[in-house]
Batch of 3 targets.
Target 1
Amino acid sequence: MGKTYERIDGRLRTFIEEQPMFFTATAPLAGDGTVNLSPKGMRGSFVVLDELRVAYLDFAGSNAETIAHLRENGRITLMWCAFQGPPNIVRVHGRGEPVFRDDPRFEELLGHFPGIDPTPHGLRAVIVVRAERVRDSCGYAVPYMSYDEDRDLHARRFAREDDASLSAYFARKEYIAQSMDGLPALPLPLPPSAPAPPATA
């Protein structure tokens, strides 16, 4: 039986932090709009900020549906499921926000991801999600699958891009500046990274 939790801590936090991938689901407000579901991998690109907030790094890709939907209405669901070990599914339903590279909060948020160098991946934003409902369920029908390693193709592809060429790449893509439904998505040209906050004594 599924259970609802008030916060992300204890075994729930341990479970989601151990998973090598998760899924995000968003949708526009329009009843005929395009629902988006995305897999997210890359070890170290997801963190639990506190008992009610999580964050993940949003890297270069061929569309920006999640960003567009979050800018319009903020609704998002994240899901983790166990492909190894005891069966389990955890969903975090909440409100998300893309924090872009020129946002004063950007550098501070990056400090929560010490295990990954975002530079080679064409980092576009940090997605911050505040949980409104946290639930788990059995996951009995989820198959066993083994995790071998992360692919290195993404880093290899985007490591050769600088800010200017990355902006040019995004400009050539049909669904980066706007979603498939015409919603504003990634601001272009790509904002420069904000300067690091001054050190405190």
Target 2
Amino acid sequence: MLIEACACSFALLSAVPATADVLASTPAASAIPEGVRAMIDKAIAGGDTKVAAAVLALAREAHPEAAGEVDAIEAAWRAGLAEEKARREQEARRRLASAPLFDNWKGQVEFGASRSTGNTSNLGIYGALSAEREGAEWTHKLKARADIQRSNGMTTTQRVLASWQPHYSVGDRLYAYGLGQYEHDRFLGYENRYTLGGGLGYGIIASDDVTLDLAGGPAFRLTDFTTGKTEPTLAGRASLDFAWKITPTLQLSQTGSFFLERGDGSASASTALDTKLIGALKARFSYNVQYERGTPPGVDPVDTLSRATLIYSF
């Protein structure tokens, strides 16, 4: 009987798994309380990355014993965000690459009154058009503006500019650009000026609220002066393009370009403050400076122009 009882007990013990095996086969308990985990899941599902990051940070601080688990949750969440962002960017590039030529254009039309100081001081009419098309690798920028002022029945300002600037993306922020530009300003000493150029540009700052681009390169200029002389020159060109979205309805921008030529040169700069009115309509207050070295005798080399205009975006 004793032998049979021992044999029976041994059989029962053999049928029970070892304690270590039981623990290994049981899922490890989470160190994050159920309520906290539910809050984390809700924040992540909400789609607001700032809120989700804040909730994860609070959970890590409130439960340091679960820091490793919170880190793992955050790592998986951020990996998913990166994967989704890459997928969206790839899809956007595919759509841009297959879009017809006349699609994906956006821009604005500007019109208003102006007041100039310098060579002239009077009121006039100003109009401008700018358009941009962003492609998978190429971006095209078109600009045109005209400023005509009359005083006592006489034209005192007649300034026209039109330009085309294609950009080719070399890297995330580096790009190569070309430039074709036409200018007319008889009161600064030239009837026509044609410019062809190119070079490299770089986005120094590229955030949602602030952008800053610097660009530069060589240029060829052909100028028909009011004296009847036509002169071709080689020049170096540098430009700056800055924009700061102060609030969702208020933006400050600064653009400028400088051409350095042998014995000559020109520069222009524009500072503008845009405020949103209704829908696609904005108001702009701007101050422009135009400098021309080597103007005819008696002509001020600096013209300034203050403007109040309305802008319609499309």
Target 3
Amino acid sequence: MSDTASRPGLLRRIWRFLASPSGIFSLGLLLIAGFAAGVLFWGGFHTALEMTNKESFCISCHEMNDNVFAEYQGSIHQNNRSGVRATCPDCHVPKEWGPKMLRKIKASKELYGHFISKSIWTPEKFAERRIELAANEWTRMKKNDSQECRNCHNFDFMDFTMQENRAAADHQRALDAGKTCIDCHQGIAHDLPGNYLDRYQQVVHDLESRGVIPAQKPQDAAEVSAYLDEVSGG
């Protein structure tokens, strides 16, 4: 009989083995093997996932290292009196499993931008798209109530009596108005694009019009500018 003729019979035997393997191996052995395989798969997946959640991975491409990471150097999140640092994933990757997976899937398009389109390959290209990139992050943080900020900073645990008068007053107004961190802290770690406040208001208006967030009063440009001058030492 030719190899071609015997192939269907071989495939049937393989299928029968896969469909009812307990005829050869005990059910207990199969359960143990399946559990071990699951542990190895999950451990490998989790390890690989966490490797992409490190600052060193985030800045491994020159676009990030030469632009946003350079701006981050010396910021309050990188160097401060308490020594507590917020790195790239702390601010840009959710900690919750579901949102984290969605964020990773969306971030996969950055591979296309790095290897194919090279959309921010040079400082000039990055500057051209800065407002668009910033708006994407503002939208995300406005939609999730600045969750990544609140992982470390939460109104519920703030003692306003221990804050400077201006900070305490600003935080109380924000709390009373139902505002979120990104409403006032757009430039806390990175340079702001020109006319950023107009674009930020556009982001807020779009989310309000789609019912993603409740309507709120327009942002006070003078208030935000004064705050940014204060935290930047201006």
